[in-house]
Amino acid sequence: MVGIKAAAVTGPGSVALKEVERPRPGEGEVRIRLEGCGVCASNLGPWAGPEWMEFPLPPGDLGHEGWGVVDAIGPGVANVGMGDRVAALTYRAYAEADIAQADAVLRLPPELDGKPFPGEPLGCAFNIFRRSDIRPGQTVAIIGIGFLGAVLTKLASDAGARVIAISRRSESLELARSYGAAETIPMDDHQAIVDRVGQLTGGALCERVIECVGKQWPLDLAGELIGFGGKLVVAGYHQDGPRQVSMQSWNWKGIDVVNAHERDLAVQMQGMREAAEAVASGRLDPAPLYTHAYPLDRLAEALDATRDKPEGFVKALVLFE
Fold first, then answer.
1. What range does the domain containing 165 cover?
2. Where is the Alcohol dehydrogenase-like C-terminal domain (predicted)?
């Protein structure tokens, strides 16, 4: 059987390109010849090589933002056909092909032909937006303007909210303005940010705060920016250990805290469908966010760029020929 190329993380900061057997779909599965895979910031924990990691990782592992064309179908699959262009929830997509459960596959509309579509992170943004329960006229602070924060800025501003974007880099704040942010604040001085948001809201602070960084300080900041009875939405991926929170403040303000990462497959697929419809209709254009592209044999560079964020960086894609 003809093999495929797959990238295997062999140790902290190290990748090897391997040739492995082309996978075969089983009952209820399809095989996808991948066109590309987005690079997720959640990869950076394993990439750093924490003590609990065991190397090498299986070939293709960590890649979970793939899209491509169905080229093999297992028994019992009725929702997709050979040659369909799809996005899917798979987990070894740093490879030329991967296997997906049929119910984790989304057929892409023709308007997306030839365009990258990392469905998992786009669907994640739409699910976070839904969980945030944003309403017209609200003030929404979004902390951390990368890929996720930029998409959420667009969705929240289109919903009629006044978005205050908070981020470290000036180019990230410019990106937020281009996606609809009404106000931008550099993320440098904690008290200065709190004071500025207080000025912008007449002391009422924000009805919604979405934390998109995944670190302790942004979570602390989110707790200070949320107003009485508001919703603090944790969208950042907190993977590097426990967090401390000011329960006194959270109790006093009577806030709702929403952990907005979805793990239910049906909900994940709902988000992906909503994202595909939005991009196909032109309501959302994520193309400016795909700033860096790499072939599979340069996956290490893509992961380093995701960590180091060179000038102009928002999101990296691994693209296959």
1. 122-259
2. 148-259
Q: At what angle do helices 147-158 and 170-178 cross, to 10 degrees?
A: 30
The 3-state DSSP class for residue 193 equals helix
The strand pair at 162-167 and 256-259 is best described as: unpaired
Distance CA(305)–CA(39), nearest Å, equals 10
* Residues 201 and 307 grouped into a single domain: no
217 pLDDT higher than 90: yes
pLDDT in tens, 60-117: 999 999 999 999 999 999 999 999 999 999 999 999 999 999 999 999 999 999 999 9
| Inter-axis angle of helices 190-200 and 216-225, nearest 10 | 30
Furthest C-alpha separation in the chain: 68
Tokens 């599965």, residue?
Answer: 29
Q: Where residue 247 sits, what CATH number does that domain have?
A: 3.40.50.720
Which helix (H) or strand (E) segment holds residue 248: the answer is: helix 247-253
What's the CATH number where 33 sits? 3.90.180.10
- Clarify whether residues 14 and 101 are in a common domain: yes
Domain boundary among 219, 243, 259: 259
